[in-house]
Every structure is written in structure tokens, then in C-alpha cells.
Structure prediction request, 352 residues.
Amino acid sequence: MKLDLLAEIYNSFNPFETASKEAYVDCREVRGNWEVFQELGKKIILSNQPTCQLCSGHRGTGKSTELLRLKEYLEQKGYFVVYFAVDDQDIEPEDVEYADIVMACTRHLIEAVKIENHNPLLEWMESRWESFKDLMLTPISFEGLSLEQQISQFSKITATIKAIPDKRRELRQKINANTPSLVEALNNFIQQAQKSLLKGGNKGLVVIADNLDRIVEVQEEGKRSNYEEIYLNRSEMLRGLKCHVIYTVPIDIVYSDVVNNIEASYHKLDVVPMMMVRNRDGSVNEVGLNKLRELICQRVRLIEPKLEQTLDNKVNGLDLPSVFDSPETLNHLCLMSGGHMRDLFGIIGEMR
Prediction:
């Protein structure tokens, strides 16, 4: 196989890259009919009050792909959607507190929705900057700054929390002490944004905070875990935003002894299911196996449609090498993955 073609195939199965719209395969029939529009979207569209929903699932099962589909679906329905996947600038996965999450939501909201006059969030930060500035990486003054430059100052707070562990605790303490006023300013901002969006024909604002499932659980002796502190102790504030919100949460919470308390605070916790490739008796689930094969075929088809025929050894004289040496090899790889898409793509990437 030519090197450039092999490289395309290899990169199309990057296990850490969200599937493109063209590569998407509908997996409802092997996920117990779980469908993101029905499970998460319906509540947003039908409710006349802000909703707060939690979404979980094992890493690599397609949560981000489904949430991005939901974003597009809601936008088609007339909503303004602020989707963001928390990154290295937002959080340190092994040391996360509620303050980090609320600052990440704040930063992405003010970057996505521009309010020129009397921006409550910028006014909040400017009035408290004296207490923050000694902890910042670089000196900042609000005088003479454009709107975009003022907005960028929120990034400097999150960057400092991430970059300087020695100052992290002190900065968080200052943010935590001001959290009620920050949430109030954030809600004032959201209400102004909603009014502006409604005038522009939008039905409302939706925030989707992805990648929070990467938060690592930290349990200090004699204290509650950070999971409980974030999702239980701070539940009122997480639920208190005056717009529709979806947070992803670590899968460990689903199997923890606090899941009932969390569901009592947020209602049902939605879990993106994995795909069944074996039945309870150990026999192969043909529907699940065929769906994983379809995932692979779809990506191969996007690279070179004729290559798809080689997956079943239907070369028929084509001058093309086979992607796999036999259909049995492809089936074996799918079964080895256990129905976990990221594991399947990782296995394919390690093949020689």
C-alpha cells in the first residue's frame, strides 16, 4: 500500500479525534435506542424554564460526537449554543475545584456572546481586580483596553490557576469568596444576552461544557471527594445559571455511592452507552459487530470508496491492496475492542 494512502487510513482512526459529520454512524440500535436529541435535546426544547443536565459515559464512547450533533440540532431549532470542551487552559484534570469550572464557563460565555455596554462580568472583574492582580502572571490595567482585550483577562485568571500551583489555592480562595457575586454577575450577563438573542430571532441560550469527565477524583482523609464538593455541595450554583446547561461528568460518579444524591439534585443522569458485541452467554452479538464494522467501513470509504470492497475480500480485479488481510481479522479486532470505539481505533493504529 502506498505510504500516503496508508497515512490517510492511519490518521482517520485517530482515537482522540472527534468524528467528522461525514464519518458519523448512527448507533442507536446497539445503544438501547439511546439518542442524544431525545435524551438531552427534548428537555431543552419542551421546558419553559432553564434546565441543567448531566451527561456521562466511558471515555471514547462518543460523548463529544453526540454533544456536537446536539449543538447543531439545537442551532437548527433556533437556539444559540455555546459549546466548549475544557482544555489545558481551563483546568488541571488532577486538581479541579468548582471555581475552575465556573471561571471556564464565564470565559467561554463572554468570548461567544459580546455585550458592548455595561457588561456585568467585566464590571465584576474590574471591581475586584485589585485583589487578583498581585497573583497574576502579568500586570494588567483595564484602562484603555478594547472589549476583546478586557474579555481576554478572564483567560489570564484561568491560565494562572493552571500554570502556578503555588498560587492556585490562594487564587481559588479569592474566587470562592466572590463566587455568589460572580454567579449573580454571570446570570445578569446571561439575561442581557438572552434578551439580545431573542431580538435576533434566537429561542434562547444553551451552554454545553464538555470534557469535565476527565476530572480525576481526589479524596483527602476525613474530607469529601472533589466530585462531591463540585457536583453535590455546589449543585445549587451549577444548577443556578439562568440558561440551559449540560455538564459532562466522570463515569466514576455513575457507579459511586453518591449517585442517588446527585440524581436527586439534577434529575436523571444520562449515560452514553457502549455497544454490545457479545451477548450474556458469550456468543457474538451480530448487530453490534456489524455496527463496528460499519464504523470502520465508513472511514475507509471516505478515503477511497473502492477500498471498502477489500474489507470483505471483494477485490474483483481492482488494483488495490486489502486494508486487512481477511474479513476474519476485521471481525476479531471489533470483538477485541469490547464495543469501545476508542479502543477499536487504538488497536487499528497499532497494527503492522
